[in-house]
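Quick start: what a row looks like.
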Amino acid sequence: MSAPLVHIKADAGLGQASSLMAVKDVRRLLVMDRQKVVGIVTQKDVLRGTLEIFTSLASM
């Protein structure tokens, strides 16, 4: 991981995660909830989530 560690709040959306990754030029973000690490989101997670959104919109 990069230093300093880049993190995002647990209630952040997919778009926020994607934008932060692009701005900070990182592939992974720590997910924080009340000063505690609760997960990691990766570029692959963002791509999968985006694909799911587009797939569900296309089927409407």
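That is the whole record. The chain has a mean pLDDT of 93. The chain has two helices and three strands.
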